[in-house]
Amino acid sequence: MNIIPSSITPSDIYWNRRRFIQTITGLTVAASLPVKASDLHVIAHRNYGLNRSEATLFDFATHYNNFYEFGPDKTTPSNLAALLVTRPWTVVVDGEVHKPMTFDIDVLQKISGLEDRIYRHRCVEGWSMTIPWIGYSLSKLLKKVRPTGNAKFVEFTSVYRPSQLPEQNTSILQWPYLEGLRIDEAMHPLTLLCFGMYGQTLPNQNGGPVRLVVPWKYGFKSAKSLVRIRLVEDQPIPTWQLKRPDAYGFYSNVNPSLSTPSGHPDEYHIGPQGELINQPTLLFNGYAKDVAHLYKGMDLGQFY
Asked: Domain locations in the chain?
C-alpha cells in the first residue's frame, strides 16, 4: 500500500476552512504536551524577511503536525507526544569525519550561541506556516567533527523506539526515518539544528528534543528527533524517496512547477490567527536569493 501525505485527508475536506478551524480549536489543553518555559539563552534574532507578528499561532503550529512515528493524522502527534522520553538523549556525529563524537543533548545545544530565526515552513500537501525556530547553523556542529575530503553528503537518522512511537510497529514507512542533504546544503548557514520554537523548548510533536530545519525544502526533509548525523561519500536514500521515488526526490526543493505531488502552484498559509491565506508558492520557498546558486546548471525537474 503506497501512502503519501496528500492521501491522508481528501483535499476538499482538508482545505475547508470551517472544518479546519473546528479541528484545531476543538483540541483541549489536556491534549497538548506541556512545554515548559525555555532556559535556552538566545543571543541573536534573525527574521530573514519575516516579522514575529507574522508567526502562525503557537497552538496551530504545535497541534497540526506531520510526524508519522506517532501516526499519519495531523492531530495524533500532539495527543501522543508525551510517550516519547527525551532525557537522557544523545546524538552521534560520525562517518567521514576526523573526529567522531557523541553529544549529550544538553551539551549539543551549547555548541554555539542560539538564534531565534523566523522561517517559512512549507509542507508537501500545500500548506505552510511561519515559525520562529531556535537553534544554530548545522555547519557549526559539522566543523567540530572536521569532515574528511570524502564527505559528500550528510545522512540524518531519527529515533527508533517502537515502544514509544506507535506507528513504528507498522510498515507504513521503513524505520527508522532517514533523510539526507548534500554537504554544501548541510553547511549552508540557513540549515538549522533546532532545539526550540516560539521562545520555548522544542515540543516532542514538533521534533523534540532536536531536529533539522531546512527552510527552502519541503517539511519532510527536516528530520525530527535526531539520534545520528553521519557524513558519507554516497548519496543516501531518504525514507520518502525509498517509499515513492516517482514522487519524492532526494532534493525536494520547494518548486511550484513540479509535476510531482509536491508541485502545487499555490499554497494555503496558516496565519497568526489561524486564518488560511491563499498565496502563490515561491521557488525555494522564498529563499531563492540565498540558495539558488547551490543548484546552478541543474535541471530542477530532473533533480527534484
From this structure: 5-295
